[in-house]
Amino acid sequence: MVNWRRKKSMGAVCTNPKSMGEQVEEENGRANSSPDENKNVPGDLRYSDNGNDIPLIPDDNDEEEMENDAIAARETVQKEIEDHRRRAAYTKSVFHHAQTDRDTVNSTRSLYDSDVIYLQQHGRVYVGDYYMPIDEEELDRLRIIHQIYLQIFDNQLTTVPLKSPTRILDIGTGAGDWAMGMGDLWPSAEIIGTDIAKVQPTAVPFNVFFEIDDAEEEGGWTWPANEFDLVHLRNMAGAFSDWDHIYSEAFIHLKPGGWIEIMDFDDHAAFLTFFDKDSPMPALLHALGEAARIAGRPRGIAHLQPEKLKNLGFVDVEVKEFGIPMGPWPDDKTQKTIGRLWLVSMLSALEASTLRLLTQALGWEEEEVRRICVSSGEEMRRVSLDVERARGLKTVARVLVGRKPGWEVDADADANGDADGDGESVVTETRTINGDGNIKLNGE
């Protein structure tokens, strides 16, 4: 069987911006060279390439354990990547051709890689006007975060009930770890991961496809209506200017009974109680929020309000919360490891999330941003590693889910795959909800 590929597919994926259509541009003109590949090696989670930066992992006992945990996490990620590549008979390059005219005509309005402008600014690589970098350093951080999420979600990739889904959409797929995991979990389903940049692996499960696509493109998504069993988004705070548009399009393109799941975190109010009011951390987070507002893509968790989904007609809307400890203060060994890794990832995120926003939206100088990131990072590390002071310090991950009205959810549906392989559907057509909202029983 030929695996179909949408038009304007991503083709072979590469993280070297020089190969991305030769379109790397400097902030003040065109660049003729790519970033130094020896600086941002996988796992090198540092504040920046600046020689004055403070190493992310200090040297005493707790911090050595943090480093060991980070190394172990990177080894886990690398092993997963190698496992995917070893399954050569069952993997493919993400470049494939459409199998039928319908697949081509109804495909999403994805961008060719040549349409995407990759920018080299402040020693990082960006795409379009998105505020977060998309270089290997950031992708490595996202891979570690994926491992953390697996731990806090009890090794589940989703919190919604699924059984034998046929199509799943992952918006803002990033490094592609979640999409590849779902591809392994549901081998009979097609998993589509979209992003504005071409940075995903080329050796992936045979049923996983990556595409360049902008979910906020004018005119709406061009997939057929009632197409997906699950639309998934995570870590997208500050990515969109109009979340109502995203949710409306998801509602249209979900199957009756299909789910949307959005996960983000922003716990500044509780988080900041652990820091002195006159310390640099509150000032940095305030500036970040203001810069995002000026840029037209506010951060925070306003998009996780249940009413956002309910007003569009979603049912079974629910917000779930998961605590992520920061630092080694938990007594539980697993939670302690999670806390160390989360601290590592958040220290790296300070500069990644602020450099572009603060320089462009607020007019800060690059070195000014780096200085406050370093001082904030020192304080975050000091507070987090003080086990008594940091006890209770955590980030709250919020997961918003909702279901498109349609069929009744099977009580035996599973979020983690069809273990018995019986192939039964997640929905049972015992009743349907018509467009007028009336329930119609089967056979009527």
From TrEMBL:
CDD domains tied to this protein: AdoMet_MTases (cd02440)
Region (Disordered), start-end ranges: 1-53
MF terms in GO: methyltransferase activity
UniProt-listed Pfam families: Methyltransf_23
Record InterPro entries: SAM-dependent_MTases_sf
PANTHER family in alphabetical order: METHYLTRANSFERASE, METHYLTRANSFERASE DOMAIN-CONTAINING PROTEIN-RELATED
Protein name: Methyltransferase domain-containing protein
